[in-house]
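Chapter review: from sequence to fold.
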Amino acid sequence: MFSRILFYFFLAFCAVGNAQITCTPSDSSLFVVKITELSAVHGKNLGDSLVAVGKSFLDTPYVEKTLEIGDTETLVINLRGLDCTTFVENALAFTWMLKEEEADFKHFTKKLKTIRYRDGLLNGYPSRLHYFTEWIRNNKKKGLVEDVTANIGGIENKKAINFMGTHRDLYPFLKRDENYNAILEAETELAQESLCILPQNQIEDSEHLIQSGDIIALATSIKGLDVTHTGIAIRQEDGRIHLLHASSLGSVRITQEPLLDYLKKIKSNIGIIVARPTLLSP
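The token string follows.
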């Protein structure tokens, strides 16, 4: 089985070698190990599968700005170090592969690109889904997730999302006027949408409606930002929802305390947004 996967992997890797992809030999090897390991995963549902895939990344180092490479936007494949968003994206891509019973690198890159970029099209830096609320909306449009925040008690929150446009100096790719102007256009589109947030003080009453495998985005009071962190919900033996995430404290891990207690330690947190994986389910 392993040799067959390895054979198809190298065929696929050669096929995409000239595409807009950045991938090291270490990541190539890790992909083969990962997809072989995950072939034994048989979750009862998508949520369970996503949790199992997410847990396979436990102890993977946390690394910031893994996608900010070079002068041109490429599809970065980095399985050696993850930030909170790339952790969710990679876990979702591998789970999608399991659902489709795929095992080759070409399908993985296609799925990751579909998840990471607006309408699945890599067309420069502005095409990346930088704001996680747009990430949820666009992946809902693709049939990959469903925003269930309103269904579990979320309320409308009107807020200008323009942090990138008002903090241009923090983003090296925004030095180019075409990138900056495109981000401003995206923010103008975002301004027409309202956020639906489950307030922190209402999470306790709705926690039983959150499922293992739900994608949790941490909403913030920081001006111009929608979300500061994201991860995967996991119900632990204490019966409570915890967060499986790439933690800035050093690695992919599960919070020791329940999600609600974890959130209470974050001064800027105002609640959560919850997206449920569907992955083109009928």
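Two observations follow directly from the output. The chain is about 40% helix and 20% strand. Residues 1-18 have pLDDT under 50 and may be disordered.
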